[in-house]
Specification:
The protein is an alpha/beta fold. It contains eleven helices and 16 strands. The strands form three sheets. Strands 1, 2, 5, 6, 7, 8, 9, 10, 11, 13, 15 and 16 form a twelve-stranded mixed beta sheet that branches. A hairpin with a 3-residue loop joins strand 15 and strand 16. The longest helix has 16 residues.
């Protein structure tokens, strides 16, 4: 396997902060939060009532009518985001060899809303009323499958299921496939489980905030942190080798320079969490030192114990207040498999424009010893960014991004 440089040439965003990378970036820099009271169903009977919802998305305006009956909301968002990413990369899939293009996405729950609706039909009307599309519309791999079918992509494809960490793991797998010879891979993740069935599943994890104040419900690294607000959406990225991008004259947003992944030890084992090791692996893979990192986009669980573990890993590697840290997901909520790809997108835009987004609504507690960017964006010379993600059950992943070399 080669060690070819793998770059990102296209970005597609569907998030509570906007549809499309431009709209998302403007909202992020403007501090415009997408968190509010749930509207996709009545949450009044549940302890958690807030979410990061996507507004203004009408699938019929973006996708062929034949796809609507066979897709969950998450897949419709993913298909649209893939279209936007391909357009951003100035790529027409029908002009490339089908086996030169692959798809690797992440998923945390699959098409929950589609599954819920079909189960309701089963219970209330009988099996003959259940859609045949239920056989795949709920499945974790359906976004990869539908994107590949829609675009004629027959190269290496798959899905990674590791909760929030999956978004980084999928991009790392895409990089691996490109280094094995695939010309282009569509990667990232989109989740959307804002339905009663999905809501109960998320509540069962015990990490959802029950605050009803949108400005204070999800405040990681804050004395009042009390869990997270879930959201829907994510980002799809186009990855290709730097050589391929140069051949077609395509600019890149940056390089996927390093990756590391670990798994936390069994609780009570006395061994430390694995996040620090994941960061060290990613830095080593990138050939970078801690001093090279200009900004960190944190996982930011919003659960005090988990926030302390992340802050400890960062201070051990970079020193107290050693690197600017940003948590733009306080404007979207945690998007599960879509969160880290959206952070990658935001980090690449930050590298491009030399500006670190603010972490809105958070009053940083001094105990964390962090240089958290709050109140307003910070202009900096940015060359290298670190993106972190952790998943329920002990997954840890880290990706190092490097800005493109000046021409």
């Amino acid at each position: 396997m080669s060690t070819a440089t793998v770059v990102v040439t296209g970005l597609g965003v569907a998030a509570p902060t906007g549809l499309g990378a431009r709209e998302h970036w403007a909202a992020t820099l403007g501090g415009r939060s997408g968190i509010g009271r749930l509207t996709r169903f009545d949450p009044s009977g549940y302890p958690a009532k807030l979410a990061g919802e996507i507004t203004g998305f009408a699938a019929e305006e973006h996708l062929p009518g034949r796809l609507i009956p066979q897709t969950d909301r998450m897949t419709r968002l993913a298909l649209a985001a893939a279209d936007w990413a391909l357009a951003d990369a100035a790529l027409r899939p029908d002009e490339l060899a089908s086996f030169d293009m692959g798809v690797v996405t992440a998923s945390a729950s699959g098409g929950f809303e589609f599954g819920q609706n079909e189960l309701r039909k089963l219970w209330s009307q009988g099996s003959q009323h259940v859609s045949a599309y239920q056989s795949f519309a709920w499945f974790y791999a359906v976004n990869s499958g539908q994107i590949s079918i829609r675009n004629g992509m027959k190269g290496p494809s798959g899905v990674v299921v590791s909760d929030q960490a999956g978004g980084l793991d999928a991009v790392a797998q895409a990089r691996r496939q490109i280094r094995k010879g695939t010309r282009l891979v569509v990667s990232g993740g989109v989740d959307a489980s804002l339905c009663p069935w999905g809501w109960v599943a998320q509540l069962a994890g015990g990490r959802l905030s029950t605050s009803e104040d949108p400005a204070r419900a999800y405040v990681p690294f804050d004395r009042d942190a009390c869990g997270h607000v879930p959201g829907e959406g994510g980002a799809i990225l186009i990855l290709e080798s730097a050589e391929s991008a140069r051949e077609r004259g395509a600019p890149s947003y940056g390089e996927i320079a390093g990756y590391g992944a670990t798994f936390d030890p069994r609780p009570g084992s006395g061994r430390p969490p694995g996040l620090r090791k994941a960061v060290q692996l990613a830095l080593a893979d990138a050939g970078a030192q801690p001093a090279d990192v200009d900004v960190v986009f944190a996982d930011a669980a919003g659960v005090p114990d988990l926030d302390r573990a992340e802050a400890a890993a960062l201070t051990q590697i970079f020193g107290p207040h050693g690197v600017p840290v940003s948590v733009p997901k306080t404007m979207t909520g945690r998007l599960y498999s879509g969160a880290a790809p959206l952070d990658l997108t935001t980090a690449l835009l930050a590298l491009r424009d030399g500006i670190v987004p603010a972490t809105v609504n958070v009053k940083l507690s001094p105990e964390y010893g962090m240089d958290l960017v709050v109140d307003r964006p910070r202009r900096l010379g940015l060359h290298t960014a670190l993106v972190l993600a952790r998943g329920y059950g002990g997954f840890n992943s880290a990706v190092v991004l490097r800005a493109p070399a000046p021409h």
